[in-house]
Amino acid sequence: MVGFTPFDGWLRDHGTPVLGDAPLAQRTTFKIGGPVRWLVSPRDENELAGLLLAAKECDVETRVLGGGSNLLRLDERLDSCVLQLNRLSRCEWSAPRVTVQAGCNLPKVVKESVARGLAGLEPLTGVPGSIAGALIMNAGGRHGEIESVVRWVDVLTPDGEIRRLGRHEIDFRYRWSSLRGQLIVGAELELRPGDPAALKATYDAILADKKATQPMGAPNAGCVFKNPPGGKAGRMIDECGLKGRRIGGAFISPKHANFMINDGGASGDDVMRLIGLARESVRARFGVDLELEILVW
């Protein structure tokens, strides 16, 4: 049993809402995950800055949870403070730009941009998660990536100060950005006027294609592996005969082999063993080492 700590004292003294030993399973799209020592949802940027400084002074590790997609949380207890930024979800439209806080729901922002006749985000149709998560991993697909609309990003420094990074100061690459490891609090996206009917048609077509080719709606974390140069991870796993392969409560999607599904009873260990099987099989057949796209806690 973990006793009362100075960090607990800070949370109590500031009236900060906190859940102790909170399981993360229902807060991730994979529906998998053991408890964390502290789960905190800061009410504003000032409280977030104070939390960071207090955690630093109390030698408490902090991690940030966005929309819970692109994440595999393992089963053991995590003695850390997880910051859930869902309360930082303000979205301000000033066409053709939109200013968004870190916790804004990406699918909602994409849908709203289409309804407003603003182009640039429709390539991210069907991509789950938060704005911050999308920026950190340069979310997107074959239709485009979020980097194309970024004007600036605000990050919170370890000293509690907000630093604004212009687009030219951020390195975006395939499923990666130099924002990784930084605490994003907001961003401004530069969209462009478009025809609402044409944008809606594009949105509907991309969504229909994803529903037909990906296991949308099933508990998963999105694509598990990055595509290697010149290849497709899903196709390689499929050619290894692994579609539908199951370990415990986790199985490789019969619809798209780069997705792993939780049947409702999967553990983090089940998924990790399935990841190992896919990696070993692809390495043996193609001589390719698959790199994880999802984050593992």
Condensed summary:
The protein is an alpha+beta fold and 297 residues long. It has helices at 6-13, 45-57, 106-115, 131-136, 196-213, 233-239, 268-286; strands at residues 18-23, 35-40, 62-65, 71-72, 78-84, 91-94, 97-101, 118-119, 140-141, 144-145, 150-156, 162-166, 172-173, 176-177, 183-190, 192-193, 246-247, 250-252, 260-262, 295-296.
List the topology elements.
Elements lengths: L5 H8 L4 E6 L11 E6 L4 H13 L4 E4 L5 E2 L5 E7 L6 E4 L2 E5 L4 H10 L2 E2 L11 H6 L3 E2 L2 E2 L4 E7 L5 E5 L5 E2 L2 E2 L5 E8 L1 E2 L2 H18 L19 H7 L6 E2 L2 E3 L7 E3 L5 H19 L8 E2 L1
Parallel strand pairs: 2-5, 3-5, 4-20
Antiparallel strand pairs: 1-2, 6-7, 7-15, 8-16, 9-10, 11-12, 11-15, 13-14, 17-18, 18-19
**The CATH architecture of the largest domain:** 2-Layer Sandwich
If helices are DSSP runs of H or I spanning 4 or more residues, what is the number of helices? 7
Number of strands: 20
Distance between the termini: 22 Å
Share in helix: 25-40%
> What low-confidence regions span 5 or more consecutive residues with pLDDT below 50?
none
Structural class by helix and strand composition: alpha+beta
Major beta sheet summary: 5 strands, antiparallel
Beta-strand fraction estimate: 25-35%
Number of domains: 3
The ordered H/E elements are HEEHEEEEEHEHEEEEEEEEHHEEEHE
Q: What is the CATH third-level topology name of the largest domain?
A: Uridine Diphospho-n-acetylenolpyruvylglucosamine Reductase, domain 3
Average residue-wise pLDDT: 95
CATH top level class name of the largest domain: Alpha Beta
Radius of gyration: 20 Å
Shape: globular
